[in-house]
Amino acid sequence: MKQVDLDRQTILITGAAGFIGSSLVKRLLEYTTSAVVVGVDNMNDYYDPILKAYRLAGIEWGTENGRFVFHKTDVADGEAVQALFDQYRPGLVVHLAAQAGVRYSIVNPDSYIRSNLVGFYNVLESCRKLGDGLRHLVYASSSSVYGESRKVPFSVSAPTDAPVSLYAATKKSNELLAHSYAALYGLPSTGLRFFTVYGPAGRPDMAYFSFTEKLLRGEKISLFNYGNCARDFTYIDDIVEGIVKVMQGPPAGEEGDRSRPPCAVYNIGNSQPVGLTDFVQILSEELVRAGLLPRDFDIEAHKTLLPMQPGDVPVTYADTSELEKQFGFRPSTALRTGLRKFAEWYRAYYGEQLERPFARA
After folding, report:
1. Which of 27, 118, 134, 238 could form a disulfide with 331 if both were Cys (CB 3.0 to 4.6 A apart)?
2. Which residues contact residue 255 at a Cβ distance below 8 angstroms, ignoring those fewer than 6 apart?
3. How large a percentage of the chain has pLDDT more than 90?
4. What is the C-alpha to C-alpha distance for residues 248 and 242, in angstroms, rounded to an integer?
5. pLDDT above 70: residue 19
6. Tens of pLDDT along 68-120?
């Protein structure tokens, strides 16, 4: 595997105002001394655009020294995407822009087709036209591609041809499209199957964030499958560190052998699935510790147990052995550590805006 020096590169990142994207931009500006990062995001209102603007505001120092430039562009707009590629001629592309969420795909499928399929196709085409100038395309896949697989931990070699949500189907489609472009055009690409990413300034539709908001309002939280689910929670810093390492190692493939094109797929997960009830207990304890909930808060009184929802899966569990083998890296942040950082951020970010029925104990 030939290493790519990230310095002196122009790196284009889609979804740059998103949770992972903005965190990656910051890390790259710290990790390199001369790389230029081009951020792309359509700033849609799937969740509060103010949070997206807040993330971008944290990168202003990169803008001031000319190492970060941002474009409000929708990846589903093929002409606009091609214009950006023509202008900047990136050597590395990290494609994170996507319509996220399993349940939302049930009620608004059009946005998934537009963003996740048309958008990814546009990025692939623009990458293809760069020819040898493109060193590596890294793109976001998801643990959702494993569907209801009962064989855990999930190995990258496991079957992924039975998605149980449209979101999962679009992510699997991305992997297939990337494989075909690698086989046909030699486009080096790596897909990363992320496992339940969480942390400060994360997505409000994720359970840890939405549970926090409901608990602070004194509302009950819904635990599906009657609480008998487990998730492989992966802290944002671990995800970003994994992306940075993978960016530097594009797959080589075998020249002239279409059965072994220059493409790869890896899991990035903490490899320590946590039961939903344990997760909620730890979250409530960290919210108490941060002063967001009273010391005598009764989490049991704020739970509602419900059946499994369409599109959900009972467990996610990452086998990261291939990632470790190729890059010597595996996520390691404990769930309590990550949730503590989230709770502290939440208190600092929302401050006096917090709507809490509880007096601080």
Report:
1. 238
2. none
3. 81
4. 10
5. yes
6. 999 999 999 999 999 999 999 999 999 999 999 888 888 899 999 999 999 99
In this structure, which amino acid lies at residue 266?
Answer: Y
CA distance 291 to 89: 48
- Count Cβ atoms within 10 A of the Cβ of residue 81 and give its class: 0-12 exposed, 13-18 middle, 19 or more buried: buried
* Catalytic residue positions, numbered: 167
CA 128, 134, 136, 141 dihedral sign is: negative
Question: Which segments within 215-349 are labelled E, that is strand?
Answer: 221-223, 230-231, 234-235, 263-268, 274-275, 303-305
Taking the whole predicted model, whether its pTM rises above 0.90 is answered as: yes
How many residues does this entry show for the chain?
361
Between CA 39 and CA 234 the distance in angstroms is 24
Q: How far apart are CA 267 and CA 280, in angstroms?
A: 25
